[in-house]
Each structure stands twice: as structure tokens, then as C-alpha cells.
Amino acid sequence: MKIIYLIISFLLICQSFYCQSDYPLKEIEEFGENPGNLRMYIYKSGKDSAKIPLVVMLHGCGENANAVAELSGWNKLAYLNNFLMLYPQQKGANNPNSCFNWFLKKDIEKGSGENESIFEMISYLQKKYNVDTTQIFISGLSAGAAMSIVMSATHPQLFKSAAVFAGGAYKSATNAFQAVKVMRGNVNYSDTALVRFVKEQNPNYTGAYPKLIIYHGINDGVVDYRNSKYLVSQWAGLHQIDTIADKETKAYAGIKDITKWEYNNALGENKINLYLINNLGHRLMVKRQKRR
Fold first, then answer.
1. Separation CA 140–CA 23 (nearest Å)
2. Which of 70, 141, 160, 213 could form an S-S bond across to 60 if both were Cys, CB 3.0 to 4.6 Å?
3. Would residue 62 be called left, alpha or beta, if left means φ above 0 and alpha means ψ between -120 and 50 degrees?
4. CB contact set of 193 (below 8 Å; sequence gap of 6+)
5. Do the Cβ atoms of 182 and 145 come closer than 8 Å?
6. Which residues have CB under 8 Å from 95's CB, separation 6+?
């Protein structure tokens, strides 16, 4: 559970000594099949461990692996807590804005395109390192958040939890025109259809779906925060729970602009957490402090 708490808390206050590029990435050029034509970068602390957790971090549009690593500070946390970081990276040849193609069928269907490339990266790390298969997590910003949902939908057995920042529901868009509408908050699918889209990827799957942590700025002018509510609906259906929050916490962690909603199953197990943030646009919740 330790990594889950890091996912929840690391972006609330990310001090500058956590957010430096003192922990360089390593590119893995040959990792298996690569139908999505992506690049692969990792950070490993070098410490030996019987079992090592894995966190997958997906960058947003206009970013790359190094940029999101430095912005988020994940590598410092990986060094301190001895876990492995994976950073898939988009290529300009696939998308001129360096966005993951979360809205193209060829990239979001199980076993194809970018979705399959990321799966191959994870499989490579499982073979290369002693990854704890019960402690694999995924996170992303914007297009990276949407692709994190793609991965969680197509390979639910892989991930313990997902943490997404300004993302959207799986298959809420399947072409570029629809993607623009979705980003404006216009999703034209019922909750039932959104759940069906996920289940169609693994029609015989009876296991658990990843826990979902959602963050969204209410003042986001790029991806409308209403997308977070569609995500709650989709994931609540997958977890077979309702969309009425079991607990609401205002001024979460003492920050007046953050409200948290928790959604639990019949056993009281937390399955979805939603954080909506006033006065936050399209960005990570990073508060930088100067070095002392």
C-alpha cells in the first residue's frame, strides 16, 4: 500500500530537492514488439531487492520522459523507496504534439498499437528485474492520463491502482473529432456503454479492476473537469458500486481548494477517490519550494 500513498501525496507538495534531474533515465531500445513505435525509458535506483514495485508514468502532450520525470519528482521517490520507474515516450512521427493517441482505435484496442507497446515494456521489465507483480501502478497527465486508463481497461490484471490527472473515460473518443468534444466535456455515451467498452476488451475476465485515483482542476481549460465524473461512472460500474460518494472531505490535507470524494464497495473497501481542485488549471499539483 505504500506506493498508493505516494501516488496520493507526492504531488500535493513536491519540494525542489525532489524535483531535480539528479536521477537520470536510461533508454531501453530493444524491449520486444513495438507496434505503437514508442520509446522506453526507465529509472532504477540500483539497490537490490527480493521484489521491486513498478510505477509506470505517462507524460502529457508536448512533454517527454525526462520532462515528466523532472516535473513530478518520481525518480527521487523511487530512489528513497526502492521501486522501479517506467516512462514510455511518444514520438513526433506518431503524433505531432507528442500526445499519446488515447483516441485512436488502432492504439487503444487490446493487443494493438501504443497500448501493446506499453504492455511489452512492462513485460520486459518483469523478465529483466524481479518485479513484484502485485505492486504495479500506473499514472499519467492529460493524454498520458487517458492512456493510463486505456492500459487499466485493457490489462486490468496488471495494475493495483491507477492515478490520473486530467484524463477521461476509456473509449469516450475513438477519433480526433470526438476527442475534441470529449476534452470540452461532451461525452455522448451512457454509463452502461462506458462500462461495456471496457468489458469488451476482456469478455471472460472475472478478476478485480484497479483502484482508481482521479485528480482534476476545476479551472482546467484544456480538458474539462466533467470528464472526471464520467471516469467515476465508468469505474464504479466496473467495481459494481454506485456513484454516490461514501465520504466527502473538504479542505483535504489542510488545503482549502481540494475536495476529496471516496467511493467504497459493500465491504467498505475503497475503490475510487476523486479530488477536484479549485484554482487549478491543466497541470500537476506541484508546489515548488526553494532550496535552503
1. 19
2. 141
3. left
4. none
5. no
6. 61, 101
Distance CA 136, CA 130 (A): 12
User: Rounded to an integer, what distance in angstroms lies between the CA atom of residue 59 and that of residue 147?
Assistant: 10
**How much is the pLDDT for 46?**
77
**Residue range 3-29: average pLDDT?**
60
pLDDT tens sequence across 208-263: 999 999 999 999 999 999 999 999 999 999 999 999 999 999 999 999 999 999 99
The reported pLDDT for the residue numbered 18 is 45
DSSP state of 18: G
Amino acid type, 90: Q
Three-class secondary structure of residue 261 per DSSP: strand
What Rg, from alpha-carbon coordinates, does the chain have? 18
How many Cα atoms sit within 13 Å of 183 on the Cβ side? Answer: 18
> What's the rounded Cα separation, in Å, for the pair 45 and 23?
8
- Residue range 37-95, pLDDT digits in tens: 999 999 998 777 779 999 999 999 999 999 999 988 999 999 999 999 999 999 999 99
**Residue 94 in contact with residue 143, Cβ under 8 Å?**
no
Active-site residue set: 142
Report the C-alpha gap between 221 and 142 in whole angstroms. Answer: 12
For residue 190, pLDDT over 50 is answered with yes
C-alpha grid cell, residue 130: 524481479
Does the structure show a pLDDT above 90 at 280?
A: yes
0.85 exceeded by pTM: yes
Strands annotated E in the chain? 26-28, 39-43, 52-58, 84-89, 131-141, 161-165, 211-217, 247-249, 258-264, 270-277
User: Nine-digit cell at 191?
Assistant: 454509463
Q: At what angle do helices 113-128 and 143-154 cross, to 10 degrees?
A: 70
Query: Quick one: average pLDDT of 150-159?
Result: 98
Backbone angles phi, psi at 194, to 5 degrees: -60, -40
